[in-house]
Specification:
This is Universal stress protein. Belongs to the universal stress protein A family. Residues 1-136, 150-288 form the UspA domain. The chain is 40% helix and 23% strand. The protein is α/β, with parallel strands linked by helices. The chain folds into two domains: 1-139, HUPs (Rossmann fold); 144-290, Rossmann fold (3-Layer(aba) Sandwich). The strands form two sheets. The protein has a ten-stranded mixed β-sheet, with helices on both faces. Strands 10-11 form a two-stranded antiparallel ribbon. Helix 5 (162-175) links the parallel strand 6 (149-153) and strand 7 (179-185). Helix 5 (162-175) packs across helix 7.
């Protein structure tokens, strides 16, 4: 699908950075920009905005000011706005349904591991079937320069990472950037070997050559589809999260796949995506598996 790039804004510095990032990406991809703000009536607000109409007016004014800044920077960009009364997580997840991607602000490094996204961000990522990009306050266009790569994690079979690879190659093509495709591997327990897997490893010449071939196979269709995109194949022994973060310093965007897991305390987005979101300094795109 090809829809607008949707940015969720709430007036915070991080959401304004997300809006700026979304606007730049919309211009690169020749797409429209949709700006969404979810608000809830606060009856105990200050006296001058204590009624519903006044609060909605205040919210709309704040959104319009943010959009005016974007429109001034990108005069040819088509921008629409939606101010919706409702729960933020549900509103944003709904807004993502017909979007090319949803862009949100992230608070940055949290004091307690596991609370970087907060309940809204984690729920939105887990619920939507569209890519979600997290942008921190202070993110600047200057990070999107030549030499900074689109880093993407690849794991499993080619089809397992196809959505993340597609997103990475599309982004790199729009920016004229290099894709660094990262595949991490670890030594499996000896009891995990089967006669079939042993034969595959033997045919490949060992574990590392096998992993390199697996990455090359996964990349082949995307290299053919985007021949203009330069690709670096990066295979390294270690945990996926650690290997991805080891190259984060050269990334203008990191792309990871995710499978959402349901637990008794809510949706979880997986350890690799969670770890990268918590520690990477650049924007991170979380792309759901098909």
């Amino acid at each position: 699908m090809t829809g607008p790039i949707t940015a969720g804004v709430d007036g915070t510095d991080e959401s304004l950075a997300a809006l700026a990032w979304a606007a730049r990406e919309a211009v690169r991809r020749d797409l429209g920009l949709r700006v969404v703000h979810a608000w809830r009536f606060q009856p105990d607000a200050a006296a001058d905005v204590a009624d519903r109409q006044a609060q909605e007016g205040w919210v709309r004014d704040a959104v319009e000011r943010a959009v005016a800044t974007v429109a001034e920077r990108h005069p040819g960009l088509a921008v629409t706005t939606d101010v919706v009364e409702g729960r933020p997580a549900e509103t944003l997840a709904g807004a993502a349904a017909d979007a090319e991607m949803l862009v949100l602000g992230s608070r940055g490094h949290a004091a307690v591991v596991g609370f970087l996204l907060g309940s809204v961000g984690q729920q939105v990522i887990a619920e939507t079937a569209r890519p979600v990009v997290l942008v921190r306050a202070g993110d600047k266009a200057s990070s999107e320069v030549a030499g900074h790569e689109i880093v993407v994690g690849q794991q499993g079979e080619p089809q397992d990472s196809a959505p993340a690879l597609r997103f990475a190659f599309e982004t790199a093509a729009a920016r004229g950037a290099t894709v660094r495709a990262v595949r991490a591997w670890t030594l499996p327990p000896v009891f995990a070997y089967s006669p079939a897997s042993l034969k595959l490893l033997d045919d490949a010449g060992g574990l590392e050559p096998y992993e390199k071939k697996a990455l090359a196979d996964a990349l082949r269709p995307w290299r053919e589809r985007f021949p203009q995109v330069h690709v670096v194949e990066h295979v390294e022994m270690g945990s996926a999260g650690q290997v991805l973060l080891s190259v984060a310093g050269r990334a203008q965007l990191m792309v990871v796949g995710r499978r959402a897991h349901r637990t008794a305390v809510g949706a979880r987005i997986g350890s690799v995506a969670h770890g990268v979101l918590h520690h990477a300094d650049c924007p991170v795109a979380v792309v759901p598996h098909d």
